[in-house]
Amino acid sequence: MADEQLQAQVAYEDLQDLQREFDEVETEIMRQQAKLTATLYERRAATVAQIPRFWPLVLEQAPPDIDQYIQPSDSALLLLSLTSISVSRFELDVAPQSLAISFTFAPNEYFTNDVLQKKFWYRKAMDGWSGLVSEPVRIDWKKGKDLTGGLLDLVIKAWEQDRGKVSGSLSAEQKSLSKKIENTGMGGASFFAWFGFVGRRISAEESVEANKIEAKAVADHKAGIQTEGSGHDHGDQEDEDLALEMSLEIFPDGDDLAVAFAEDLWPGALGYFSSAQEQDAMSDFDMESDDEAPDLAEKLDDSESDTVAPPLKKHRSQ
Amino acid sequence: MADEQLQAQVAYEDLQDLQREFDEVETEIMRQQAKLTATLYERRAATVAQIPRFWPLVLEQAPPDIDQYIQPSDSALLLLSLTSISVSRFELDVAPQSLAISFTFAPNEYFTNDVLQKKFWYRKAMDGWSGLVSEPVRIDWKKGKDLTGGLLDLVIKAWEQDRGKVSGSLSAEQKSLSKKIENTGMGGASFFAWFGFVGRRISAEESVEANKIEAKAVADHKAGIQTEGSGHDHGDQEDEDLALEMSLEIFPDGDDLAVAFAEDLWPGALGYFSSAQEQDAMSDFDMESDDEAPDLAEKLDDSESDTVAPPLKKHRSQ
């Protein structure tokens, strides 16, 4: 039995190495994909700019992991005033996972901003966690039109005081934010609360340091040097800090929503647009109408439906 | 207004070109990914072979788009006897979408096969459709143990007579298959009925021809030559044939399930295994137990949870 245990032990260590190498390949693939598609996305942007309501129609067909966050009042604004969406991977060389998502708006009755851009940085924490973190983005609401009911402003206020540092005890602003979140409950929050998402407080410096430590551990491991596990467990203090951070979060799934935009809606926009047209055609079915424009849905449809679901059309669980 | 219409017309044509170019890049990325990960998958197979019940544990954590097709009686067989799963892309150069999915079994009370392999070919039809098609795979059930209740055998019988050709009127075997499917209703069918999936009847020859026609249309279009739409609409006869084909299908979503295996379970196996271990650890929480093996879940966990969900761990809608 001891032999079998040893064998299993070795196997488990190999799995960790493998997982790391798979991750590296995946990162490289992400980088190549971004490079290979860059000019296609530029051409797409130029083309769809000529099609009225392209992005609102795409958004109407958004999959549940996006759609669930869009409330009726958000819809009204988005459908009437959204003019474009774009996604860029602004740290392609160091972290192709990092994202900037931009929304452009026509003049509207809700806010004065032309563009709302939300950036997500891919960071690694000293405790081994890695993922997307962000900073709150201010929206200049018109009077009485704040769809977040003042919450986003509170987030900005708490953030500006200390750049989101959370430790020991909360500041007055943080306390009032935390209280408001607790009292509101965030189910049914406006999509625009997403612009207040922060996620874990991990500085660029911490991330660089954590990556260095991991790289050293990997090198040591390859050289056969035993090291005590690089990712340390959380102490009580750290658990408490994490809980405090969470109590200030107005959009807990903000990172998931960012990924859904970047890996589903953005690459699949042509497919979603074609679904929108299809739906439109269906509802016109009984009417004797001369189509004003050729129906893309019809043309894209055959290759669209029931295909291997190339991620550029309709995303599946890839 | 006429100008605007013309502009929209041009934009729609550009979208079709763009979609095609996106598809081409996606195919190339798929090819590169397969090449870059090939040796990693080989190493993974060798490593997980040393871990008892690796694949059954992975399958227990399968996402809904796989799990929904596994009935309790399938589970019993799979959990006890499944020894490995592997996925290969056997037409990497011409069609990286084509898949072969193999399941290896220990001796069991249900069937005598050691290996069940299901192949899916990526084909293009003359009507413009493209997707995965397959051929039924026989399972040598032990007496009284057929989990499909005889349906899979009927599919094989009907298939063998004419290699799945469906036209005009059904053969006697096809009729009896169609009737049985109609009477059974396939909700709650065994996972093993999937081995009978056929999908659309598109021969390799038709696919080559359809690709040639499309390539010519694309070249003509680029050269500015007007052609009447390459994908023709279905005639009544073709619609009827399609309906007949569908009436013989015992697993209508067979292609989706193949893609879920290939793009989710297979690349994400290490992540699912780690979830299984995590769950196991949770249920042991209250017991004073000496772990027999180091807990991979604990080690993978930090980077696992709440990360950008690299497709190699838990798949999201990429």
UniProtKB/TrEMBL annotation, chains A, B:
Residues 1-35 form a coiled coil. Keywords: Coiled coil. Transmembrane segments: none annotated. GO terms for cellular component: nucleus. Residues 281-318 are annotated as: Disordered. The keyword Coiled coil applies. GO terms for biological process: nucleosome assembly. Pfam families: NAP. Residues 281-295 have a biased composition (Acidic residues). InterPro entries: NAP-like_sf (IPR037231), NAP_family (IPR002164). Belongs to the nucleosome assembly protein (NAP) family. PANTHER family: TESTIS-SPECIFIC Y-ENCODED PROTEIN. This is Nucleosome assembly protein. It comes from Calycina marina.
